Structures are given as C-alpha cells and as structure tokens.
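PROTEIN SPECIFICATION:
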Amino acid sequence: MNFQVVGAVKLGPTITSVPGGPGVYVYVANMDATSVTLGGLNLYTGNPNTGVFGSNTSAEADNVFVWNPASQQNVGPYYYRSQGSIGWRGPAGSTIDASTNVFPIGTVFEILHKTATPFNWTIPAQY
C-alpha cells in the first residue's frame, strides 16, 4: 500500500499531548515532511514534564517502540539512558548510540510512558 501526502509543510513546532500513568501506551506518528533521527525528535528534554523519562535501563525509563509495517511488529525498546553512557539506546544494546537512527516519513512510534505525569511533546519545526 502506498500513501501520498499532499499540502503545505508546517513551518512551526507541533505539540502533541502524551498522557501520564504507569504503563500507558501512546501511539504517535512522525509528523515531519522528511525522515528524522531519534535524537532529532526532541522526545528527551531532561525534564519529565516536557519529555520522556530517562534512566539507566529500559526497565526503569520510558520506552519508545517503532512500528515496522513489513513485519507487523514493534522494534525496540529505545530509551534514553540518563546515567553512565548517556544518550539514546535501543535493540543494539545499552552502549550503542541510537540517536542517529533514521526513521522515514510516516513512522509510527509507540511510547510506553511509565510516569504518572503527562507531558506535551514539542516536535521541533523542520524549517
């Protein structure tokens, strides 16, 4: 199946609400008009009131999964490691930087938000 997106590119930032509550799964799409890196999503801000919660392990941190339409399964978890070897980590291991992983237009992300506080995810403007 092919999709065609038509229209003007949004020039400002986009804000998406991510509800809180232990074990809440939220589906969000890459709303950029181009591919985007995990680090470029602005999901981790260092403040759990404005982004995902980071920690030393994926068991403690909020998790981000990426939907793979070919296999019909989620890939992940990705999480922000905020202690030790700091940065985005994923299926390749806790020492491999995943912030430069590129996701194409239309990628769907599933966020497992483990903290009770909801946050407004500010997706940066592309242009």
